[in-house]
Amino acid sequence: MRKRERENPCGVCGHYHKYEEGEVCGICGHRIPATIEKSGLQTSAFPSEILPEFLYLGSYDNASRAELLKTQGISRVLNTVPACQNLYKNSFTYHCLQEEKTLPFDDAILFLEQCEKDKARVLVHCMSGKSRSPAIVIAYLMKCKGWRLAQSYQWVKDRRPSVELSSAVYQQLEEYERNTFGSFESSPIPAFFPASQTQPFGFGFPKVDNTAPAPAFNNTASIFDRAAINIPPQEFTFGATNNEMKISSNPFGFTANGNDTPMDSS
């Protein structure tokens, strides 16, 4: 087996097989899911750059690609999932969070602050790079950049669109914002998890009472309800004010007495 293949095990099972090419693992039988194989969808092999030349966000698959991390200059890894193995301890400096149910934001931020002081590029990852690791990065932006939760979340989401925070993780971020700024900044519920009850968005306009009676308009009768004007066709004249007057020059070719005259064809 070549060196490159030995340094890039499967990001899911941890064994060495050509996962992207559909090869079945000879140890555990793992292979690429049929739904992904048919659709041809593949995630990026590179992590997302959150802060230039410093902070990167990704998945366990990204963390398993040692050569690609080195090409980006990443030398440290913050592992947010205790069950994920730290694969390359001889090549990278690892820091692994030990809590599963709650995210130890302060512990993670201390490590990231040290990386920033040392001017070292660091990768923050979880299994899929969608919830736990983005939450750590968002908490770091709130603490070190002074940004509120909504702004920090949008910054990360713009740079990694696949982010989908769970409701439990988002609640932890709300609590962290209260502890950091002394209050929680009310903002629209993000679209990363469904809300059970939400109020309709009204752009600040007063609520319309649908039970109020419709306004009454002028009861003037319609022009279509008036009695028809009975004028014989032969007596009808365009623009005439006097029935006795004859129109000597009429562009339509009509006269007051009803006789037609030829229209000018020039």
Automatic annotation (TrEMBL):
<feature type="domain" description="Tyrosine-protein phosphatase">
    <location>
        <begin position="46"/>
        <end position="182"/>
    </location>
</feature>
<dbReference type="InterPro" id="IPR000387">
    <property type="entry name" value="Tyr_Pase_dom"/>
</dbReference>
<dbReference type="InterPro" id="IPR020422">
    <property type="entry name" value="TYR_PHOSPHATASE_DUAL_dom"/>
</dbReference>
<feature type="domain" description="Tyrosine specific protein phosphatases">
    <location>
        <begin position="103"/>
        <end position="171"/>
    </location>
</feature>
<dbReference type="GO" id="GO:0033549">
    <property type="term" value="F:MAP kinase phosphatase activity"/>
</dbReference>
<dbReference type="InterPro" id="IPR029021">
    <property type="entry name" value="Prot-tyrosine_phosphatase-like"/>
</dbReference>
<dbReference type="GO" id="GO:0005634">
    <property type="term" value="C:nucleus"/>
</dbReference>
<dbReference type="Pfam" id="PF00782">
    <property type="entry name" value="DSPc"/>
</dbReference>
<keyword id="KW-0378">Hydrolase</keyword>
<keyword id="KW-0904">Protein phosphatase</keyword>
<dbReference type="InterPro" id="IPR016130">
    <property type="entry name" value="Tyr_Pase_AS"/>
</dbReference>
<dbReference type="GO" id="GO:0009738">
    <property type="term" value="P:abscisic acid-activated signaling pathway"/>
</dbReference>
<dbReference type="InterPro" id="IPR000340">
    <property type="entry name" value="Dual-sp_phosphatase_cat-dom"/>
</dbReference>
<protein>
    <submittedName>
        <fullName>Dual specificity phosphatase</fullName>
    </submittedName>
</protein>
<dbReference type="InterPro" id="IPR044212">
    <property type="entry name" value="IBR5-like"/>
</dbReference>
<dbReference type="GO" id="GO:0009734">
    <property type="term" value="P:auxin-activated signaling pathway"/>
</dbReference>
